[in-house]
Write a structure and sequence with these properties.
Blueprint lengths: L1 E2 L2 E2 L9 E4 L4 E5 L10 H7 L4 E5 L14 H14 L5 E6 L1 H12 L4 E7 L8 H14 L7 H11 L2 H6 L1 H11 L4 H12 L15 E6 L7 H7 L6 E6 L6 H4 L1 H15 L1
Parallel strand pairs: 4-5, 4-6, 6-7, 7-8, 8-9
Antiparallel strand pairs: 1-2, 3-5
Helix pairs in contact: 1-11, 2-3, 4-8, 5-7
Pfam families: Abhydrolase_1 (PF00561)
Keywords: Hydrolase
Organism: Halocalculus aciditolerans
Amino acid sequence: MARDGAELYTHRSDTVCTDRGSGDPVVFAHGTLMDRTMFDPQIEAFADEYRTVAYDLRARTDRYAEPYDLDDLVADAERFLDARGIDSCVLCGMSMGGFMGLRFALAHPERVDGLVLVDSMAKPHTEADQERHGATAEAIDDEPAVPRAVAEPVTEELFGATSREERTGLVDGWVDRWTTYPGRAVANEVRSWLGREDLRERVADIDVPVLAVHGEEDATLDIDAARDSYAAIPDLTFEPIPEAGHSSNCENPDAVNDALAAFLDRVY
């Protein structure tokens, strides 16, 4: 069965990943509604010099149906690294992947050589945002696939104004993909981080270099609020990304890749 010309997303019992290159490992964890392919621009840029690994988190596999939280995603990441034979890595997480990445760095410091946060944040959403996102999750929970009427407005949160105006192929392609996801997959994905704890003080314990890149047009997580939430991180580089919103690594990959290249040179 197809929806709006897109094939229904194939759910797999095993973790699907892209694993290219050799050398020091860089592991990528995607955000809500996205999948491992959002990091294709980084895989292409860095696979000649590093081992680049991007994997699908629980919501993009057949494990989406049971409730889970960020601690479960941390445990999944640990098992994934074990399965790929990766003792430690630079861990790069976008949004939800960053929420998980912060917790992973605190829980397993010996396995993190450096941490990259893409349009993420160390503090929780406001109560108003939690109520809004919770209501959306409830509304789509029983839908066989995310309705297009729900998916299209989300582009204003996932992409910046420049991308919505000038990178319509990128935006439309993701909307088509979102409408193939089971509603429960997205609902549980949202619920996994909705009530997350405030880490603004605990991030002071992260003793590896941290790079935070953040789209200047991010309408989901305000860039200044994100920067402030990382204030206690001892070794932080914060890079605003112009002409990009919440998905800055695929909206303006050149700017993100420049920042990531300099960071990896310093870590490795």
